C-alpha cells in the first residue's frame, strides 16, 4: 500500500494532531526523494520505534549552491510513495517550494562552528539551508523522534547541535550508512555516474578505510593517517579531491592529533558528480 501523500502544511498538522491526540508517537524521516535502501533503513528504524511514520520529500532549493545540481534532482513521487508504503510509512509529506517558501525566507538558522569545515567550507550556504528547512519540518510535524543517516555525518552533527542548543523536544536518531556490496555508500547521486565512474567510485570508501586502519594501528598524527588515503585516491586521475579530513566526531573541526573519537570524511568529484562518504575513526 502507498503511504498517503500530503502536500499542505495545515493538512499535515491536522492529521498529526489527531495521531498525537490518540496517544501515538510520531517519527519523521526528512529526505529529498529519489528514495533508495539508505533512506529505507531510516524508515524501517522509524517504523520500529514510533507509531506514525512521516517521510518528508522536499528538494529544498535554499540548500543548493549549484543550479545544475538542483535541476538534476528529479524525483518520482508516486514511486517514492509506494516505496514508503511498502516499508510501512503512514504519510509522505511532499510540499511544493511555494508551500514551504511562499515568500523568500528572511529568517534562517545558522549552526556555527560545526558548519564551518568540510562541506560547510566547500558549499557556502548549504548548511544554513539545511538547518533552516529541518527547523521548519520540525515545527510543522513536531515529531517525537527524527531520523538522519550517518552518510551525511556533518549534517547529523549540525542537527544534533541545533536540537540541543535550541531545546527542540525531539530525539535525533543516527542511522548507520547503507553501502553497496563493493563499499560504495548508497546515494541518489550515484545514478549520475557513468559505468566507468561507477567502477572506480568504491575507491573513496577504500581510502577512508586506509585512514581508519592507520589510526586503529596507533597513528596519532592526522596528517600521516590522511596521507595513506590521499595516496590511494591520487592513483586515480578521475578523482578531483575536495577534501579528506580527520575531524572531531561531535565538533566536525579538523584535528592534528587523534586523541578522542573522530570521523574520517571525504568529498570527491568524479566527473560532474560529487561523492561524499565517511567512517568512524
Ligand atoms: P537525502 O535524500 O540525500 O537528503 O537523504 C535523506 C536522509 O537519508 C539523510 O539523513 C541521509 O543521511 C540519509 N541517507 C542517504 N543515503 C544514505 C545511506 N547510504 N545510508 C544511510 N542513510 C542515508
Order of helices and strands: EHEHEHHEHHHEHEHHHEEE
Mean pLDDT: 97
Distance between the termini: 41 Å
Strand residue content: 15-25%
Poorly predicted regions = none
Structural class: alpha/beta
Number of strands: 9
Give an overview of the whole structure.
It is built from 11 helices and 9 strands. By secondary structure, the protein is of the alpha/beta class. A 6-stranded parallel beta sheet has the order 1-4-3-2-5-6, sandwiched between helices. A 3-stranded antiparallel beta sheet has the order 7-8-9, covered by helices on one side. Helix 7 crosses helix 8. The termini are far apart. The mean pLDDT is 97. Adenosine monophosphate (AMP) binds next to helix 2 and strand 5.
